[in-house]
Specification:
alpha+beta, 2 domains, six-stranded antiparallel beta sheet, three-stranded antiparallel beta sheet, Aminoglycoside 3'-phosphotransferase, Chain: A, domain 2, globular, Phosphorylase Kinase, domain 1
Length: about 325
């Protein structure tokens, strides 16, 4: 019988422990365990790896077809993180395989999937009610933006421009909603075009920038992917990185944390930290508002992926 098509598989933890043992120059014994959490099916898979007495995080990327990715997209991310770590910035860094590469691959039931091993981020998730931690996150985000201005990417990665942020999500939403929700779609399209026009008026179209408002960004800074230990953060999970507007990075963090809906002092602490290292121009600051709209539309489109899986959640095995 012809093998049935598999849309998404989860690799057994003990099999991945063997993969790490075979491919990385680390001391054993080796064990692996999938992080116990609610997993969304549009996410990558993450495993906690114990090699000897040291902890690491292994990411198994979704098959590239699901998210429009190719090998160079993953290599870009890993190379950029290595660059940031070399600049002394607090990011979880990829570890090289025995042959020096940062990216490996396995044959999964649905096809080839890539993997990478990262240093483990110490501490616990940042507290959104701690102004000191918010200040530090803002400052370190600004330093990442500043340092990335000097990064010269040896790999191609699709930019986080309007095609990615708006056009593709809107097309997926249009197909998912169909004619029955035409009135809602018309309202959404009007908001989307207003936000696009406002960004272009303030910052110019992608590729037309003359300052540093455009560059490599994290794309999805989040309190849950920022750990603090002894007052110092470590950022991880940069799967959404790429060339984009830096103001969008700020809007993504504000959206992910709902920070603007909390006390004014907390959001001011974040901005104070950012401004201490990289003051925003008037146009950049004004662009945060339309980027918040674009971020919401992008997230709606994320849950309307064509394979029909995105949006479902379930508990990962312990």
């Amino acid at each position: 019988m012809e093998q049935i098509k598999v849309a998404r598989s989860f690799i057994a933890a003990d099999a991945l422990a063997d993969v790490v043992a075979e491919n990385y120059d680390l001391d054993g014994p080796f064990s692996a365990k999938m992080f116990s959490k609610l997993l969304r099916t549009q996410d990558n898979d993450h495993y906690r790896i114990l090699a000897g007495d040291k902890m690491y995080a292994l990411r198994v990327y979704q098959q590239g077809d699901a998210l429009g990715r190719q090998e160079s997209d993953y290599q870009f991310e890993l190379d950029w993180l290595t660059f940031l770590k070399d600049q002394g910035l607090p990011v979880s860094e990829p570890l090289p395989l025995r042959d020096g590469r940062l990216l490996g691959s396995i044959d999964a039931p649905e096809g080839q999937r890539y993997f990478a091993l990262f240093s483990f981020a110490p501490g616990s998730s940042m507290a959104l009610d701690d102004p000191d931690e918010l200040y530090e996150v803002g400052a370190q985000m600004a330093l990442i933006h500043k340092a990335s201005a000097a990064y010269e990417a040896p790999y191609q990665r699709r930019p986080l421009g309007m095609t990615y942020l708006l056009d593709e999500p809107l097309e997926r939403i249009r197909r998912a909603w169909g004619p029955r929700r035409k009135a809602n779609l018309d309202i959404l399209l009007t908001s989307a075009e207003d936000a696009r026009d406002e960004v272009y008026t303030l910052l110019g179209e992608e590729g037309d920038q003359t300052g540093d408002e455009w560059g490599v960004i994290g794309g999805d800074f989040h309190n849950l992917s920022t750990h603090f230990k002894n007052g110092r953060p470590t950022f991880f999970n940069f799967d959404r990185c790429g060339y984009g507007w830096r103001a969008f990075d700020i809007a993504s963090f504000l959206s992910n944390t709902n920070l603007l809906q909390t006390s004014e002092g907390l959001s001011e602490a974040f901005f104070a930290g950012y401004y201490a290292e990289r003051p925003l121009s008037r146009e950049e600051h004004a662009a945060i508002s339309p980027f918040l709209t674009l971020r919401r539309i992008w997230r709606m489109g994320l849950f309307a992926l064509d394979d029909g899986l995105a949006g479902y959640t379930f508990l990962a095995p312990a």
